[in-house]
Amino acid sequence: MAPISTPQTPFGRVLTAMVTPFTADGALDLDGAQRLASHLVDAGNDGLIVNGTTGESPTTSDTEKDQLVRAVLEAVGDRAHVVAGIGTNDTRHSVELARTAERTGAHGLLAVTPYYNKPPQEGLLRHFTAIADSTGLPVMLYDIPGRSGVPIDTETLVRLAEHPRIVANKDAKGDLGRASWAIAQSGLAWYSGDDMLTLPLLSVGAVGFVSVVGHMVTPDLRALIEAHLSGDVQKATEIHQKLLPVFTGMFRTQGVITTKAALTLQGHPAGPLRLPLVELTSQETAQLKLDLAAGGVQL
What's the mean per-residue pLDDT of the chain? Predict the structure, then answer.
């Protein structure tokens, strides 16, 4: 049974896009994934995104993706929303992944904009609609033009919001003006997909966030959103400013790389990366330690 959700917060408010732990030889570490998922939910996450980009989904097989969803559901599925990333640049493949995730028991789907092939807006509309039509699960869109090459235009978001199962958008567009209009016009539950912009997006109508730095600072992030919701703007701003070194440090290079390094430093399951991602250098690791310490993270 999925955790309680509302139309305003269909996936909760505090979510982390979870890394995929691997063993020393690069195999899927399901035990580690369960331990990490439990740690993140214990820290205060309402939900976890599994098989997203932070989960190195471009390098995991369909079988591994299914195994990971199953393992995380077993560990925390009665306490947190387990949302399966199923987005690819092939609509038929995404539909297959969505149906598998539903059969396995996922509580929702994350569908990223198709990347590299740069479809027009009509293509995006048909792609996301096909995914939403294929299961009974709620869908969170993921708009990240810096990686996909194509933004989801506000008009397209409004049209997609008419679908009864397209209920949310993860916004990593980095444009507060466009976000403001899209929130107002679409009625979608809006989730920040950019840690640095979480507080600004909350101020224009976002209901929560999907974080990478949540691996390190979920309690602070929960305190930030609770302060915002209670009207304590000063406290929310103070927490935001305290975390600036973390927001900056975790993205000096690709976020999965720094996240796995930070988790390893803390003794949590993470393991190696799969190529083309590579480990931090000793110099980069030293800088990461400084950044995290400046934001109050204990290693």
Answer: 97
